User: Fold p21-activated protein kinase-interacting protein 1 from Phascolarctos cinereus.
Amino acid sequence: MELVCGCYEQVLFRFMVHREPGRSGQSEKWTPMADFTHHGHAASLSAVAVNNCFVVTGSKDETIHIYDMKKKVAHGALMHHNGTINCLKFFGNGHLISGGEDGLICVWDGKRWDCLKSIKAHKGHVTSLSAHPSGKLALSVGTDKTLQTWNLIEGRSAFIKNIKQNAYIVEWSPSGEKYIVVTINKIDIYQLETASIIGTITTAKRISSVPFISDSILAVAGDEEIVRLFDYDSLKCLCEFKAHENRVKDVCSFEVPEHHVIVIASTDGFIKMWRHNPTKKAPPSLLCEVNTKARLTCLGVWLDSVTDTKDQLPTAAAPSPVNKEE
Assistant:
């Protein structure tokens, strides 16, 4: 596995994580080792996305850069947006979805890297987007105070909902039955069937990252050193722990045999990996850490052994003229 992260200093870092059996009764040892750095962007990195073969990074320089993880080479750049790339999401290995300050959502072929569809999605910036696990729907939020649902099969808007504030994060639950919308320091939890709010979590500080650790647990991080795990059915805080010495910028999680891991990046320059037991309310325990000595902005984890069977969006969502906007 490899940790990939971007920073204000325009650099992409990659760290190979080595796992070694523990000695006589000791825990397994995890050690991150510097593997690769690339200074490809002309401005700070703002987003990163990972699939089985590639890492893509978005930047304030208006470009998306592609890195082949298996060959360990830069694979080129995508230039369609006019403004900062705010969000990047892979759906399997078949497609990449990007959103930016220009209000566009672009769907890219993840093999030829053609822009299959360019949609004028929001009157303001696109701040976040998320594809449903089925690949049929996507959600996006922007600075026009709207939450939009997209039909990915037909490549058109399916529903527009006005919200009271600008939203900065939207995310489907792993089951696709619920989704969350984050506005500054508030998380609204929606039920898909009714499109109505069924619960709200409020924090004291601005929220920067809210990944689903499981289908019932949210990790909530932001402008403080503390990370909290919430049960989003009961809305109760299961535990909290001091993850860093400065504000947290990004959080992600993954599972490997015998380990449920939470990875956290901060502006203090550290990436830390934590072992979490979802069946217990105890705080996670630290597995390992690495100091990049940079101000980190975005984070991803590349798992070479993972294969994703959902590597294509529904075929009807595919070819459309490259420069067509809807």
User: Anything to note?
Assistant: Residues 2-317 form a domain with the Methylamine Dehydrogenase; Chain H fold (CATH 2.130.10.10). Residues 46 and 184 are 18 Å apart (CA to CA). The chain has no helices and 28 strands. The longest strand covers residues 29-38.
